[in-house]
Design goal:
Strand content: 15-25%
Number of strands: 15
Bound molecules: flavin-adenine dinucleotide
Helix content: 25-40%
Structural class: alpha/beta
Distance between the termini: 65 Å
Strand order of the largest sheet: 5-9-4-1-2-3-10
Largest sheet: 7 strands, parallel
Length: 324
């Protein structure tokens, strides 16, 4: 596609919350480029919720409302997105870094023969109207700044990279699109709900996480109790989920990236892969019996000691404080 031909910023995510988060940043970028902001919504019975996206900054909301597209389908979603890009020629396409969004972005970029930057934690535009994406690389040890030679510029954005914008009273244009539903080459054999708590850990304002310092699964009750007092959520390091299977999800580079007001790391050493997922937390408290543990280097407050003694004492102290 010719660089000069394309204009506008297009957003799509199969996760509506993430689409809204991306819209906030995309609006800033579109304003800087003096371009329009488009958002694509695909699904079943989604026209009303799609129209509401104008309040979050979209000038044009493209809707494909089709019962056959209630659930994500790689081929059909790709074909809809590709057609939209070819017909409307946005210079930037921002997709949600969900498990469906990442391969979708890679396939779209391949089909268009352009580049793709995955998992951008920051986005900006340089003097040449080029999108610049920043992403954590080398296992969390470095930040790579990447830009493009071709357009459209395709990038994916993870959850919580950008704050959700406040809705504003503004009108956008709703454009209904017809889409041919492709015959899927995949067959869904079984769908099982993921075992998760009701609240997304990314939305928690306080997270109490445990690592291999926790000796038994039953001891999780210590974290549950503290999290109750703080109205927070319990999280963990990867080994507790992957190796010990005590949890289904974890926090970190390969897990959830969180930015709560308070993150308490209990018995977590704080290696880079864990720290990469918590570095945007407002206050980090570390409880660890090893004073040399790397978590203390990035913690705002550190407690050197045994979590089995400190957690009950901390819970009591906070409870008393809250009662005053
Ligand atoms: C590609 C890749 C991706 C990864 N992604 C992630 C990720 O997203 N998230 C993640 O967490 N890890 C990730 N890991 C794993 C990571 O490298 C570490 O192995 C892991 O984070 C260590 O977990 P931990 O801190 O719980 O355990 P450890 O490193 O074993 O630390 C346990 C800590 O507990 C302390 N402790 C022990 N007993 C007590 C006690 N009673 N009271 C207080 N402190 C105590 C110890 O002093 C120690 O510091 C990844 C690894 C790879 C290779």
């Amino acid at each position: 596609m010719q660089m000069s031909e394309s204009k506008g910023v297009l957003v799509f995510s199969d996760d509506q919350n993430l689409a809204i988060e991306i819209l906030g940043k995309a609006r800033e970028i579109a304003d800087k480029l003096q371009s329009e902001l488009f958002v694509l919504v695909i699904g079943k019975g989604i026209e009303e919720s799609a129209a509401a996206l104008a309040k979050f900054g979209a000038d044009k909301v493209f809707v494909v409302d089709n019962p056959a597209l209630e659930h994500f389908q790689a081929e059909s979603y790709l074909s809809i997105l590709h057609n939209l890009v070819v017909n409307h020629k946005p210079e930037i396409v921002l997709l949600g870094s969900t498990k469906n969004g990442k391969p979708l972005a890679a396939r779209l970029a391949t089909k268009l023969d352009v580049g793709c930057i995955p998992d951008c934690a920051r986005l900006s535009v340089d003097e040449g109207r080029r999108l610049v994406g920043e992403r954590i690389t080398y296992g969390g040890n470095a930040v790579a700044k990447v830009t493009f030679k071709t357009k459209p510029q395709v990038a994916t954005v993870p959850s919580r990279a950008f704050d959700k914008p406040e809705p504003k009273e503004r009108k956008g244009q709703l454009i209904k699109l017809d889409a041919k539903v492709e015959q899927s080459k995949l067959e869904v054999v079984e769908t099982k709900p993921l075992e998760t708590s009701n609240v997304r850990i990314e939305d928690a304002s306080a997270i109490i996480s445990c690592g291999r310092g926790l000796e038994k699964k039953e001891d999780k009750v210590l974290l549950d109790e503290l999290s109750k007092v703080l109205c927070g959520q319990v999280g963990c390091s990867r080994p507790l989920a992957e190796d010990r299977k005590w949890f289904s999800e974890w926090v970190g580079l390969s897990g959830h990236k969180v930015k709560p007001k308070l993150y308490i790391a209990c018995g977590i050493s704080g290696v880079i892969q864990h720290v990469a997922g918590i570095r945007d937390s407002k206050v980090i408290v570390a409880i660890n019996k090893d004073e040399q543990a790397p978590i203390f280097e990035m913690a705002d407050y550190g407690v050197i000691g045994n979590l089995y003694e400190i957690l009950p004492a901390l819970k009591e102290a906070i409870r008393k404080q809250l009662q005053q």
